[in-house]
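Q: What does the predicted 3D structure of NADH dehydrogenase [ubiquinone] iron-sulfur protein 3, mitochondrial look like?
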Amino acid sequence: MASSLIRQFARPILATSKGLVSAVAHRNIPASLIFLHRTQATTPPQPTPNVPAPNLIRVNVEQRKALVDFGQYVSECLPRFVQHVQITSTNELEVLIHPDGVFPVMAFLKDHTNAQFSSLVDITAIDVPTRVYRFE
């Protein structure tokens, strides 16, 4: 169907030297089917200065507050192992811990009444071979 429409409109354009104008005049082609010629193409809109990019992530204040409260709670329960707690721009809680605290923190998050985590999404470690303490 589509290919036959294209052939129907392309034959008169290719057969005449007048091009697109001749095809429109003789065939009564709807204006919505006419493509812009290369010389008639519009230029892309220029970005306006001093306009910040839109924030595509919706900020849920209640969820963010709950994450902050839980992060503080974890850091109060495990002050020996938790080094830093932060919230990412995508509303994810990050708990940075000492390498010796991996198993105790995992046990706390899994077994504690207020946590009861059932799945682990991501664990990250940084290896810097030139340091005495290689893993961060």
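A (community wiki): The structure tokens above were generated from the sequence. The mean pLDDT is 76. The chain is about 35% helix and 10% strand.
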